[in-house]
């Protein structure tokens, strides 16, 4: 099983790439943070990222989704990973919780994800959404924190440059379709 992480700045186009990969038959796993935010907002909570349990809720959903996907397909692509959750905690000025630390240890010791991480570069703008309330300038700070976080864990960042969806999809496919080393 080869599990790749697709990451990058908010609004970079990760979800569009992920949808195309699903159409091509790859196993894909959606981003957990967006699901946590959407669920809370549907229940009337406007800014769930302000509550103390937010990071652990993301970690819980990421772990659950990773374990549930463990038996599907030979190649899977995950929209973010617990390393992204670490970057989010850093960005929000939150301490690393015991749950996040344990999950980072688990994915590292078990080699859950491929060492090559698909880093989708920003498009030069960041459109706000209900879940994404970040300016373009803030997204660039967040992008740098993601890079630093992945490098600190020894991952190799494979740049997926800004461009049209077809070229980005081709760049991702060229990495994930290669035989395992």
From TrEMBL:
One of its GO terms (molecular function) is ATP binding. Gene3D superfamilies: P-loop containing nucleotide triphosphate hydrolases. Keywords: ATP-binding, Nucleotide-binding. This is ATP-binding protein. Residues 3-168 form the NadR/Ttd14 AAA domain.
């Amino acid at each position: 099983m080869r599990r790749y992480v697709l990451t990058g700045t908010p609004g970079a186009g990760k979800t569009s790439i992920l949808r195309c990969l699903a159409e091509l038959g790859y196993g894909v796993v959606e981003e957990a943070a967006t699901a946590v935010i959407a669920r809370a907002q549907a229940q009337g909570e406007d800014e769930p990222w302000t509550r103390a349990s937010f990071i652990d809720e993301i970690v819980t959903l990421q772990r659950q989704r990773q374990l549930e996907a463990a038996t599907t397909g030979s190649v899977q692509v995950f929209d973010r990973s617990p390393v992204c959750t670490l970057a989010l905690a850093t960005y929000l000025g939150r301490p690393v919780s015991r749950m996040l630390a344990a999950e980072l240890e688990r994915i590292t010791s078990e080699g859950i994800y491929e060492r090559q991480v698909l880093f989708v570069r920003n498009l030069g703008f960041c459109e706000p959404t209900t879940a994404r309330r970040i300016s373009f300038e803030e997204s660039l700070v967040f992008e740098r924190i993601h890079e630093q976080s992945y490098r600190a864990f020894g991952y190799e960042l494979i740049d997926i440059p800004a461009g049209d969806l077809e070229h980005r999809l081709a760049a991702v496919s060229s990495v994930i379709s290669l035989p395992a080393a």
